[in-house]
Automatic annotation (TrEMBL):
Bilayer topology: Multi-pass membrane protein
Keyword Transmembrane found: yes
Protein name: DUF747-domain-containing protein
Region (Disordered): 456-476
Pfam families registered for this protein in UniProt: DUF747 (PF05346)
Cellular localisation: Membrane
One cellular component term from this protein's GO annotations in UniProt: endoplasmic reticulum membrane
Segment forming the signal sequence: none
Keyword Membrane: yes
Residue ranges crossing the lipid bilayer per the database entry: 79-97, 109-126, 183-204, 358-378, 406-427
Amino acid sequence: MTNDFYYSEPSSPQESQSPCIEDQITTHSLLDYLKEELRSVEIADTQHYKSERVSNFLQVPLGIEKVINFGSLVCLDSFLYTFTILPLRATFALLNIGKTLNASQKADILKMLLFLLTSAFLLIYTEPSRMYHGVRGQDNVKLYVIFNALEIADKLCCSIGQDILDSLFSRTRLTQKPSTTPIYLALAVIYAVAHSLVFLYQLVALNVAVNSYDNALLTLLLSNQFVEIKGSVFKRFDKSSLFQITCADIVERFQLMLMLTIIACRNLIELSGSNFAFLPRAFIRSNTQLETIFSPVVIVILSEMAVDWLKHAFITKFMHIRPSIYGRFVDILAGDLVSTTKKIGAPVDLAPKASRRLGFAAIPLGAFVVRVAVQALGMLSDSSSIDECATLPPSALQRGAVVMQWFVWLLVCVVGWLVLLAIKLLLGIRLSAFAHHRQAEAVARRTEDVLTNLQTPIGEGNEDKDDRIRSKQHLSTRIDDVPNAPTGKIPLEELSRYDMVKRIW
């Protein structure tokens, strides 16, 4: 028995006859093999781009939070526009009703009418308390189905509703085809009511999950959020799809924050006692009630942030996209805020242009908030009681109390509206200044973005590049395409959330 052995690649009979192959057959002893193992260098050739992947992975949360925060402020600006600027514009348009109204004034009147009709329907035909107890009586499996069904319904309603509203408020329809306006107004009312009901049921389901005693429903809600990672990460995306995902995350984050704020305020009113004050008892007595109210809210928000971070970090890692792309997304949204060009047939309201790109439904969400706010005001008014030991007659006491109560609520509404108007104006000024500042520096960033795109993608060698080009050439043949089908890629600057690129988010 010998300590030598032959180490060679398997060869065919033709290769065994070749002298070059025979020269490559070498003999190694066990000692030589051990020396090779001890002296071998195991530093990977891909270390340079692997470190860049890790660095980009850690930079994604900061980049995605910047664009989500900016987009959320844009949604807030459009949301406040519905309550503050739109009533003023509609009032000024109604004052000129005897004169010839332009397309913008007609659109303002129609939007305010749509908002009032939707709010009136919700106030008359919906009862959130009954909806809450109806959803609360369901088991966990049904609630899981309700969560997913409402999420799908929200996306479908927003997709079709955006087309309906753009058609209703288009300059061409308001000036050249006014006879079809009632038809589209009826469709818009149906859509707005349906979408508002979806928002209302989402609030009820979220309230049931947050206020569950055993936290089982809250765990179900958190698991439903993390399922989103599975549905998004293990797919191929490009920059257009990533932009649509970002738009969807912006709207989802804003709606979730709004609903959680409403739930926290309702719970604070219910737990602060019968005698309501501007400083609730929870602040004075102990922090137990505050922990009970806000701990589930904070958990849901933090889990949503973690899901967004992980989702975008892995998407950019797998698709070899650098975090600088999120700065480009901010530039696109900022460009919508400073755009002043008006195309033929385009909607006349350019203020919420960025929110339309995001797919944000301001009117249904505003009507939904009106319904919830009226219920909250009713809860506050029920907390006040009449002194039964008063010396005045009950009828006179009741009349005086009712008049004073209506005066107080009217004063509160006026002051609240003025506060919202001030916030809207300050927010609009800051967003406009930031957008102009971003656009002034956008040229340099676009040049840098072009240079970045010309670089070799992260982790792609020459062989991988040749394979990618070869596969693209084979797949780009037009033999299998439908004749006269629309072709071409939508530019990123013209892309909105509900344009079909690969899928709708």
